[in-house]
Fructose-1,6-bisphosphatase, cytosolic (Microthlaspi erraticum), 341 residues
Amino acid sequence: MDHEADAYRTDLMTITRFVLNEQSKYPESRGDFTILLSNIVLGCKFVCSAVNKAGLAKLIGLAGETNIQGEEQKKLDVLSNDVFVKALVSSGRTSVLVSEEDEEATFVESSKRGKYCVVFDPLDGSSNIDCGVSIGTIFGIYTMNHTDEPSTEDVLKPGNEMVAAGYCMYGSSCMLVLSTGTGVHGFTLDPSLGEFILTHPDIKIPTKGNIYSVNEGNAQNWDGPTTKYVENCKFPKDGSPAKSLRYVGSMVADVHRTLLYGGIFLYPADKKSPNGKLRVLYEVFPMSFLMEQAGGQAFTGKQRALDLVPEKIHERSPIFLGSYDDVEEIKALYAAEEKKN
Ligand code: FDP
């Protein structure tokens, strides 16, 4: 009998138990983070269940469409946003929320305020919803360092000030990947228990990978370093094998694969979108935080991504993230370009 495997099956490390263990290292901690996280987990479980039955429950389609009974249907991303906002406000642990779905930040009423600010994309990769491809929720968490009225200044802070970040991927299994600044840990939802169980402790990204992930349809508008980098992936000059291209077009899925298999994910600037497409607060920062915690790097084309100081809550930035050595290569190409100018 394999006792070790048996122990693994019977001694379940749920995400709550994991975070409580982490918290016990800080005697002054009052459990606020655990409460906040359990509300995020609740949102993820809700979205997971909604995504699984989206086709059946007719949750796909455009917001504002009416169903067969003439009732207005909520699009899955609008529904997910409502659930997250309500779960986060009711946690009593948040003061400012920034969601991809809402133009303005949400300031929590004073009686329900807490010390955290959460930036999130409730359902990222929404163009993939209707065809059943993996999508996800991305979140980043800051702490308020004052007790004055909350403002957007509380979230317009560099990513290196985040205290935690993560994503939940709704794919062939539902997986939540989290970092509280002490490595990256992956939890898989056991649907029969309704619990996220630690299945991928201390994820480390390979130092170098053999996959690149980018929307090559934009290639005609790329700048010199990006064009050269992708050219090198396909036609390496040092005799190494060409890299494989994988692009789902759903950031959570593409970043998740990059984290586990290694390689690079890039959404660069191009002539049409000089700031790229992805949003700093709830796409670039959380994923960059996770990459660095896993031993990789994240670069904007100009600087370390986590050092960027956003000026607007829905600001965009180019991003290159993944295996340490792969990002090092693109950094060298940008450095060489800068020297020329
Ligand atoms: P989507 O437009 O489907 O919501 O920022 C959102 C995002 O998806 C990311 O998840 C994804 O990486 C990227 O956009 C895909 O953009 P392209 O279609 O331009 O490649």
